[in-house]
Every structure is written in structure tokens, then in C-alpha cells.
Design a protein that fits this description.
Layout lengths: L2 H9 L5 E8 L5 E9 L2 E6 L4 E5 L2 E6 L2 E7 L6 E8 L1
Antiparallel strand pairs: 1-2, 1-7, 2-3, 3-4, 5-6, 6-7
Length: 87
């Protein structure tokens, strides 16, 4: 998927992409079966039905198939990066 198309997708109010995302570099949790972004909220449902919901403070487009959703904890002492790759 080209970068511009990806950006457009993620900038839309709501995004639903199924079976095409892999969550990498966060405790090797594994595959994401559903991901949606509603305003500044990121909702991910993993293959094992674990649900991750967090506020997104920044979105970085690493390359054509990898996106970093960055969450900064309220006390600003921790930055969590959900690095997601389209597969």
C-alpha cells in the first residue's frame, strides 16, 4: 500500500482494517485482527481477543507499510509505541 493511501486511511474519522495488520515490537504480542482509529483513540483487537485501547498522541509513518502509533502516558514519564505493519 502506498504511503499516501495509508495516511488518508488513517486520517479518516474511522478506520477498520481486518486481517492485514501485525503488531510488532511491543512484547511480541502478535497479530492484530482488527484496528480502528476514532479521532485520537486507537482500538486494536488482537488475535487472542485482547483489546488495546489508548489515546494516540502522534502518528508516524515509518515507511510504506509500517506505522507507529505513539501514546504518551499522562504523567509523561513513559512513551509507548505501537509499531504496526501491514501484511
Amino acid at each position: 500500500m502506498e504511503l499516501e493511501k495509508l495516511k488518508t486511511l488513517l486520517m479518516n474519522k474511522e478506520v477498520m482494517v481486518e486481517s492485514r495488520w501485525e503488531l510488532i515490537e511491543i512484547d511480541s504480542i502478535g497479530s492484530v485482527k482488527e484496528i480502528s482509529k476514532l479521532n485520537k483513540l486507537l482500538i486494536m483487537i488482537l488475535d487472542n481477543d485482547t483489546k488495546i485501547v489508548c489515546k494516540v498522541d502522534e502518528v508516524q509513518y515509518e515507511n510504506e507499510d509500517t506505522v507507529n502509533f505513539i501514546h504518551i502516558t499522562p504523567d509523561k514519564d513513559e512513551i509507548i509505541i505501537f509499531r504496526v505493519r501491514i501484511i
